[in-house]
Structures are given as C-alpha cells and as structure tokens.
Design goal:
555 residues; mainly alpha; two-stranded antiparallel sheet
C-alpha cells in the first residue's frame, strides 16, 4: 500500500514536471551539486560545465555571496572569480548527488534528471508521511488518502516539484520528525484473542512471557522512533536554518507528553537532536568561520521584523495568500476547534508551528526586498511550505468530525469542502501548466505592469493581477507559445531560456516526447488510483492495522 501511494504521487509529479530549475536559487543549488560531484567540494566553482548550458550569470552569484559573507562590495567588473560557499542548503545539493551520478552513468544531462525527479520524490515522500501520520491520528485510511491528495495536488506545493528549492526538503524533515516523535509516544495495549475471538483482559496476561517480550519490543521500538524524530528535526535545520524557531515547539510537546511515560524516549530524542545540531555547527564553522553562521552574514542586520501587512498578506492577499492557494484552509479555524476536542497536545503543537511561522515570515522585510514575506517571485506563500503538512493534518480533524453529523448535515458540509478542494486543484494546476516566471512575464508584457514601479505590490494585492488570474489568461491566450527565448539572450530577461517556451505548457515530457508517453503515464496513474481505492475500501483487519500501526492514545 505504501509503495503504491508513493508511485502514485511520484508519477503525478513527474508527468506534470517542467524539468528545469528556478531561475536563481534552484540553479545555484544545482551548481553546488555539480561541484560536489566534479570537484569533490561544497563550494560553488565559477567554471563548472553546466554554467554555460544554463546561461547563468555566475559573476553575480559569486558577487552576491561574497557580499553576504564579508559585508564588502567589490566592483563586479574587477572582482576575481573564485570558489565561494553559498547560502543554499548543502543538504539539498548533497541529496541530489545520486541523481547526478545516475545521469552521468547513462550519459544523460543531469539538469532535467534532477529537475524532474528530485523534488518530485521529496513531495511524494511528504504525501506518504501525511498518509501514515493521519492514519496514526484518525485511524481512517479514507481520511488519510484524502489528506494526502489535498496536499499533493490541491495545495501550492505541487508546482514546486521543479523548483529545486529547499522548502519541500525542509517540510519532509519536519513532518517526518513529528511523525516519528508521535510514534515514540504512542502506547498501544497488547491484546491476545482466545478461541472464542473475545479479547482477553490485559490484566490477565500482564505477567505472561509473551506480553513481557512484546512490551520490551515496543519499548525499544519507541526509543528508536524517538531517535529518528530527533534526527529528522536536526536535519530540517540542514535543509533551512529557519527550522530553529520551530524546535522549541517539538521539545515542549515531547517534554509534556513523555514526562509521565518514558523519560528514556525523551532522552533519546534530545541526544540525537543535540548531536545532529552540533555537526551542523561544525559545518558552519568550516564554511563561514562561525558555529552559528549559516552564510547570510551581513544581510542578517538588514532583515527587519516589523509591520503587520505581511501577516494579512500571507493569509488573505490574492497574490500570495494561503486561502487563495489552498482554498480549504479557510476552514482551518473550525478544524482547530475539532482537533482541540480530539487531541489537546497536538492542537497546541500544530498551533505553535503555524503561528510562529506566520509571525516570523509575516513580519519579515528588508531594505532591498520590502515584500520578503511573500516569497517575492514564487507561486503562493512559499515560506509556508515547511508547515503546510501540519496545516493538512489539522484539516483531518474536520473530515473525521463529519462522521458525527446527521446524513443531511454531513452532505451540507461536504459540498463546500469538495468545492474548496476542487478549487485548490484548479489553482495549482494552472501553476503547473504555466511556469510562474512566464505568468509574471505575461503581467509585465500584456498587462503592462513593467511600466509601474509598484508592480510586485499590484500583483500581490490586486485580485485582477493575481498570479492565478495571470496564469489563467496566459493559458487561454496561449501566451507561452509566443515567447522566443533567443530574443532575450543579451537582455535582463535572459532567464526565459530556463523554461520550455515556446512549448505551450510547462511539461517536460510533453514538450520533448509528445502526448503519447503523457497519456500512458496517466493511464498507469489511474490504475494505481483504482488499486489504492480498493485497498482503502477494504475493512481493516488486525493484520492491516499491524501494517500501519495501532491507534495511538490521545495525549
């Protein structure tokens, strides 16, 4: 079942992928991967073979990283190009090395291989973890599958399978940490069924050798899960340093949940977390000369946390608001209410992660990027991607609570939920079919926003110029087929060559191999969906439950 789920989501992401990188951050992270393979170094080398293929201005990249880490502003024209450490996630670049090696082994360009398959794998793994975590929480395969679908194809994570940004990897580490942490806190009671199929009273078997062995096995397994939770939480900092602000929530939840149960588990969690963070500090020391420095250097003094418009924007702006790029999130307050009734500990844990992230991102600005909170040129509120799995998990409490309503009331609530979910699929499908850079380009050229110095603010707050609307208009007018990248080679818009224009859709397989392979993969996806649905409709048995884990106690 788990393998089927992974293949299902993986094929969806691959068949809709663009096969190219984000025009700046993604390319820089890829070039560090290439340095790791060809130069056996984590530095960015300015003479890598892919730089010319990507038409990437390596001078500006080296200049930017030099300024960040030294605070000095040398002349770009006279600056000596030398290898530099970048602020990009080393974890992301290192994790992509196997994909680069496989491509090299078969004499294939690593660029489309990594761009098409790496983040597709990461997002698919998150979908699977959401399924497993939801099953632990709600004991319903149907609800778990629906939540994984909402995440995989109904949220703004979907278009990021091509970006090669670190946020999906950070999200995978965080939700995996929470899942294993929760598993280590679960305390299912052992049960034995007698010949009459009646459950034996636990007190009657508490001293039996079988029960003792079982309990020892479960105790050791929970210690192992606790260690994995600490490991993944530490790795999330390797993916992106902003995970540091979320660590107190994990530690507090574990502390209050484990103190009355098993302090050994809590010790395992903290020990592995501390060791992982220590090695991150060592890496920082080797790269930037400071245990607590992540490469942002002097720019950190420019980052400000003031104002409230970013908080409003993250939630309700048409250009970067959560409720527009994940429409079902409008029901999040109601879902939190039901989660509080179901599991108070998890309620406070998820509330902490979401609120702290909103406060940190929503108040962020800088002298050179006043709209830093929006993620600048991106699809939806990209800085909320790390906590997106937790938003989805909270929404599960709403779906589970539907069972308590009468049939008529349940139908009345299901209709808006279905409409919101379908809206989410549409919104993020247009984000897939048109590369977000081309969507913005449509606004600049066709809607003449390039003539307005406040163009980013207009696209953020004016519904008519929201990326969702711009992408829809670009699709209807077949705008992308009119883009000829060779016309922009020596201009500021040289990045148009990174996409697939003049192919009408941002779909690597379709643009390079036609509709037949796309159709074939879609058929396989449909067959996998059919098999998964059959499995979901099968009533759970004790064997099924052993596969996914017994229902956890409510903390």
């Amino acid at each position: 079942m788990i393998l089927l789920l992974f293949c299902f989501f993986y094929l969806i992401n691959v068949v809709t992928g663009g096969g190219h990188f984000d025009w700046w951050d993604g390319i820089e992270a890829y070039l560090v991967t290439e340095s790791m393979v060809l130069r056996h170094s984590a530095m960015l080398y300015p003479d890598l073979p892919s730089i010319e293929k990507l038409h990437f201005d390596i001078r500006y990249s080296v200049y930017s990283n030099t300024v960040l880490q030294t605070g000095k502003y040398p002349s770009m024209e006279t600056m000596h190009l030398r290898p530099v450490y970048t602020v990009r996630s080393l974890f992301l670049s290192a994790a992509a090395v196997p994909f680069y090696l496989v491509a090299s082994l078969f004499s294939i360009s690593p660029i489309p291989i990594i761009a098409l398959f790496f983040n597709s794998m990461i997002i698919s793994l998150i979908s699977v973890v959401i399924f497993l975590f939801s099953f632990e929480l709600y004991s319903s395969k149907k609800v778990s599958f629906v939540l994984s679908l909402i995440f995989g194809v109904g949220s703004f994570i979907w278009p990021y399978h091509t970006s090669f940004w670190s946020m999906p990897l950070q999200a995978l580490c965080l939700v995996s940490a929470a899942y294993f942490m929760y598993k280590s806190l679960s305390n299912p009671l052992p049960f034995i069924r007698n010949s009459t199929r009646q459950q034996t009273n636990v007190t009657d078997i508490s001293e039996s050798p079988v029960t003792s062995t079982f309990n020892n096995y479960k105790t050791n397994k929970r210690i192992y899960y606790a260690g994995l939770g600490g490991l993944f939480l530490g790795l999330s900092v390797y993916a992106h340093p902003t995970s540091i602000i979320l660590i107190p929530g994990f530690v507090a939840y574990y502390c209050f949940s484990a103190v009355k149960r098993n302090r050994t588990n809590f010790g395992s969690f903290l020990t592995v977390l501390a060791i992982t963070l220590f090695f991150e500090g060592v890496i920082n020391e080797l790269r930037f000369g400071s245990f607590a420095e992540f490469g942002y250097g002097s720019s950190e003094s420019l980052i400000m946390h003031n104002g409230w418009h970013g908080l409003v924007g993250l939630i309700g702006s048409p250009g970067a608001g959560l409720i527009f790029f994940l429409p079902i999130s409008i029901l999040l307050p109601l879902a939190f209410k039901y989660l509080y009734e179901l599991n108070k500990g998890l309620f406070f844990f998820c509330a902490y992660l979401i609120v702290v992230t909103l406060l940190y991102v929503g108040t962020s600005s800088s002298g050179f990027e006043p709209y830093a909170w929006s993620g600048a040129i991106a699809w939806g509120p990209r800085y909320l991607i790390p906590i997106l799995p937790f938003i989805i998990l909270v929404l599960g409490a709403l779906l589970v609570h539907l069972k308590k309503f009468s049939p008529k009331s349940r139908l009345f609530l299901k209709i808006p939920i279905i409409i919101l979910c379908v809206s989410g699929v549409y919104v993020n499908l247009v984000g897939n079919l048109v590369w977000y850079q081309y969507g913005i380009m449509y606004g600049w050229i066709k809607d003449h926003l390039s003539k307005n110095s406040e163009n980013m603010e207009i696209m953020t707050w004016n519904p008519y110029y929201s990326p969702i609307v711009l992408h829809t208009k670009a699709l209807l007018s077949d705008f992308v087929s009119q883009i000829h990248p060779e016309h922009y080679v020596n201009t500021a818009w040289y990045w148009t060559a990174y996409g697939l224009a003049p192919c009408s859709y941002d779909n690597y397989i379709f643009c390079n191999y036609g509709i037949v392979p796309v159709g074939s993969i879609v058929v396989v996806i449909a067959l996998l969906a059919y098999v998964i649905i059959l499995e979901i409709r099968t009533k759970p048995t004790s064997r099924n439950r052993a596969t996914f884990g017994l229902k956890s106690f409510v903390h």
